[in-house]
Structure formats: C-alpha cells, structure tokens
C-alpha cells in the first residue's frame, strides 16, 4: 500500500467517523457513536502505515513540512481520543468535535506539498525532536480538551430535557477532564517553548527573537496560562472555562499552522 | 502591609495577562521597525507617515522594546513577586496548621459521607485508617478522629513555579543589560582579537562594564561539507583561542555547536571563498593587495563589488569555483573549489581599466597594470555573544517546568474522619477536599467510604 493510498484511506475513515459522530450526537443514536469509534480506530491503521512509509522514504522523522506536521498531529489526537474513550465510559460523543477538526487538519496534510524536505544543518539537533514532539503532544492535548469542553456545553444545554444527554458523563467529570487535558497540554507547550529557546541559543546565540511564530506561541501559552489561572485562583469552572478552552485552541492552532502562512518567519522553512 | 495589597492582587495578575496579550498581538499585527519584516514598516511609513508618527509616540513601532511593554512587564514582575511571597506563606500555613477535626467541621466540607453501624468489637478508626492507607494517604490519629493527607508537599509547587518565573524575568533583564553581541569575518589563517575595533559590528548592553579580553581567535580552516551531488550540507570552522600568541584551546564551530572561550561563544555564520588579489604597477610596486571576501550568489558562483581601500580603484568580480565552458557559456559545475576561475573587472575612478579571466597563480598584464590572483582561501563569518544570564535562565526553565508539572500532576488531597459512638450506634463522619480535579477526588472518596463500609459490615 503506497503512502498516498494509505493516507487517503485514513482520511476516508476519519471522514466517515466524523459524520457518524455528528449524526450520533444530533440524532441521539448511541449505535452511531460506537460505529464512529470503530471507524476512527480503523483509520489509525492506514494512517500509521502512511506515517511509517513517509519516515522510511524521507530518512528522518515526520517533523518537517505542513504535510508531516498535520498528519502526525492528527494521528496523536486520534490515539489520545481513543485512549480517553477506553478509559472513561460515555466519552464517545466528544468525537463530534475532535474528529471533524482532525479531519480538517488531515485535509491540510492532503493539500500540502508532499515534497521531502532535507534536514538542514541547523536542524540536525536532538532539540528538534524534543521541540517538535512536545508541540504535537501539546496541540493534541488541547484538541482533546476542546472536544471534552464542547461535550460539556452540549450536555449542560440538553441534559435536563433528554435521556440521551443524561447518559453522557457527569458535568463535573467533563469539566475535570477538560481541565486535566489543558493542564497536561500546557506543560507540554511550556516544554516546547523552552526547548525552542534553548535550541535557538545553541544555534544562533539568542534564545528569543520575537519571530512571529515565537510571539504567537507565547500568546497561545499566555491564553492557556490565563485560563489555568482563572481556574485555580478565581474558581472558573463549567461553562465559562469550557468556552475559554475552545477559544484558546484557535490561538494554538493559529500559532501552529496559521502564522507561517501569514508572516515572514524563520520557522517558515519547516512548515 | 497595606501598600503591598494592590500588588498581590490576583485580579491585577489577570489584568496584566490581558494587557500583555493585547500588546503582543499588536506587536505581531503592526509592522515593526526592527522586526522580521522591516519592509512592511517602511511601506507603511511611506504610505501613512502621520499614522507612523502617532504609533511612534505610543511606542508601537517597536513594541517589544517600548516603555509600554516594559511597564507592563515590570508590573507583572512586581505582582508575581508579591504573589510568590503570599503563596509561600499560604503553603507554610497549610503544612503547619492542624485542623481540629469535629463533626461540624466535616459537615461543612463539600465532599463528605456518613457511615453508621451497630457497635461491635471492631474499631471504627482502624477501618478508616486502613482504607486511607490503602490509598497511600499519610495519617495522623487522635482519640476520635483521623487527619489524612496525600501530596501535601505539593502546595509549594505554585510559589516555586512563580519563583522560577521571577528568575526567568530577572535573567532576561540581566542578560539584556550585560550582553555582548557582535560578529567577525575571518579568512583562513587570520586571527580576531577580542577588542571593539576588531568586530564587524558590536552591540553591548548598558551595563556591559567588562574590559575586553584582548585574547585572539584564529580561524585555522573552514570545512565545507558536501553531499555526493555537490550540494552543501554544512560548514564548520576550526578555531584556536590564543593568549599572548600561544594556543590555549581548540574547537570546531558548526551548526548548533558554538566554540566557547572565556564565556564568549563563537557561532558559525555565513561563509564563502576569498581569492587573494594583488594589483601592481609596471614597476611591480603594489597598489593594492588582499583577500576579496566573496559571498555565494547564484548558480554555484561567488561575487563581490567593492572599492579597494586607500586607492581610487574599485572591483567587480565573480568566482567560478568549479569552472567549465558549456557551449561558450561559462558556468560552475559545483560549489567545490576544484577549478577556480576569477572573472575580474577593475575600475579606476569609475572607468573600466581591466577585464580579465584569472586562475590561481596567474598574472595578467593590461594597460600598465599587473594583476595577480595568488591563491584561494575560504572565509567564515562568526557571530559572537557573551551572555552571563544563560545559566540562570536555564535554571529558571528547569525549575519552572518541574514545578509546573507538580502543580497539575500532583494534587494535594486531605481527608478527615470523626467517630461518634452513641446508644450502641457508631457513626463515622468522613469528608475531604482536593485543591483541584474535584471529580476524581469524589471518586476516590467514594472508594474509601465503600472500603470502610465493607470492612465494618
């Protein structure tokens, strides 16, 4: 199976899973949600094959260029989501948010250039691995947090009127789970920023240069720091925290994907 | 202290968060004078000069060096300082304070349960202690009550994380104030002396008070590393540090690997080829001699256009390091200096006086001038920095990440139990609290209560 065929197979499975998750939540069909999880898990198989083939073909890990970056991010997010479903009952409906976003990010991978980027001398550093791995772990965690927060908002709105929504996990549990994923993602994001700063100092003799991606990453970090601060110190919970979690993802995704398309940045060569 | 009250306000922290966010967003949206796209600033200045004047007054054309940004950062620092102190005091109180466990205290807690059973030979507090121990709680027993806790030390994580933030901010300020940043360009065999006159450009922080060290760094050799197809993989410079002319340290600078001597870091930067050119008159008196530091331009060639120092001559030259004729058209097959050919045009007072094709060791005579391309060497540009704040900054990063992980992954949990025996009935009141993740704490409490119930059944 070629890399592109595997990738398209994964995209197809994720597309079907997205539709089933949305239909399951909208039409309150639990069976749809179970099928959707099956399709998401099935999608992981060709997706893993596509990433492995890419790795072999490129001769380096999948961390250069929008295609590799988006593909691995989605792969991680789907794995995280399946683990959450396995560990906590009733979390399937969060897929109605997580899988469509993952599917869109896969779309970005599909349309991005598949040309193999050489690892330039400046990139030949173990800091690259640390920096990139933690970026992906952070964004994948934030994506799961957003999905869980979305489910919180749905449950909060409908749980009094409908037994389907009543069967979803308790609101307190959803709030806690979203909080945990934001917290873990924030730790990963912090490691990403600090490892980038240490690497920059090693490569160029300066740890911070207000490059647009550096600045947007710091902005996204501060948005999440603000959210956690509100949760810890002001007691923000529930709806307000859920909305801010969803908003914060926009900052993280823009820092991750958007900035290199809009601004001239030293990171542009890697996207 | 009353005066400190506004500074330790958490509301102030939130306002400062928002202000910092706003100013950073402005910094990336508005074209910045010294930013990564100065052309955007120049274009705005040309189109909207009045707007740029207003932005300048507000400090918004160089946001990250503006008084506004530094004011907000300073307030943030002060706020973090006071919050660290008050959080440290709070953490110490949490450790010291022994709660007086009573029925009413437990009933005021949000997470609580009550277990009752007929009095028997089993000791109720033993059952509670066993259930708590199985969940790895540490226990302190009194006559009728139990206090238990888990991860209590983690209350220090928050103040220590804030302390790390303070260390990072102080390191940044200290670094900016005392930093040295410069560059030098050396041809193989030449040496750089650590003195202001020797830098290609030099900038130092306002508190850089240190005497320049006057040691030397010699560029012994530049290595170009190539793929099989001739594409360049990387460049490295072998450097020797010299004190009073004697070598004291040797190292190779390449990407991600600076050579460090006396706190000065030498980073591999730009590189190129440097033909040695000598221009003489008919009597072989030297008019000018030296290396032409040529930068890579395009199609495997290097080029330069420069005035020759202390003369009225100027030169335009292109070097074909691996020259080949392709149907009469001159090209370079690779960047490797295998068969160098220098195409040189010499001008005197702006008028062309010589145009020649030169190979190494070749002497060309034209219009009363002798031009000699003696030999070819490589050159490297080395970025030089000295920043004493780096160890403190990295310490701040390490402490910060560690305690950030502790804040969110190690949650202090407290459980209290009180036993009441009356009229043959034993009642155990059990309650607790966690500093975060209340839902999972509730689950743990349910398991503990269930365990106690099972053991007394």
Secondary structure blueprint with pairings:
The complex is a heterodimer of chains A (271) and B (457).
Chain A: H1 3-26, H2 30-58, H3 65-87, H4 95-111, H5 126-158, H6 163-166, H7 171-204, H8 212-234, H9 238-262
Chain B: H1 10-29, H2 38-47, H3 49-57, H4 67-96, H5 103-108, E1 111-118, H6 124-134, E2 138-141, E3 145-150, H7 157-178, E4 180-187, E5 191-193, E6 201-204, E7 216-226, E8 232-243, E9 246-254, E10 259-261, E11 264-281, E12 286-291, E13 294-296, E14 302-307, E15 313-320, E16 323-326, E17 329-332, E18 341-348, E19 351-358, E20 362-366, E21 369-386, H8 390-409, E22 413-422, E23 425-434, H9 438-456
Question: Could you characterize the architecture of this molecule?
Answer:
- The complex is a heterodimer of chains A (271) and B (457).
- Helix content of chain A is 78%, strand content 0%.
- Chain A contains nine helices and no strands.
- The model of chain A has no long low-confidence stretch (mean pLDDT 92).
- Chain B is of the alpha+beta class.
- In chain B, the strands form four sheets. In chain B, strands 4, 6, 10, 11, 12, 13, 14, 15, 18, 19, 20 and 21 form a twelve-stranded antiparallel β-sheet that branches. In chain B, strands 1-23-22-3-2 form a five-stranded antiparallel β-sheet. In chain B, strands 5-7-8-9 form a four-stranded antiparallel β-sheet, with no helix packed on it.
- In chain B, helix 1 (10-29) packs antiparallel against helix 4 (67-96), helix 2 (38-47) packs across helix 3 (49-57) and helix 6 crosses helix 9.
- The longest helix of chain B is centred in the first third of the chain and has 30 residues, at 67-96.
- Chains A and B meet through helix 7 and helix 8 of A and helix 1, strand 8, strand 21, helix 8 and helix 9 of B.
Overall, the morphology of chain B is elongated
Fraction of residues of chain A in helices? over 70%
Assembly classification: heterodimer
Tell me the series of helices and strands of chain A, N- to C-terminal.
Answer: HHHHHHHHH
Average pLDDT level of chain A:
92
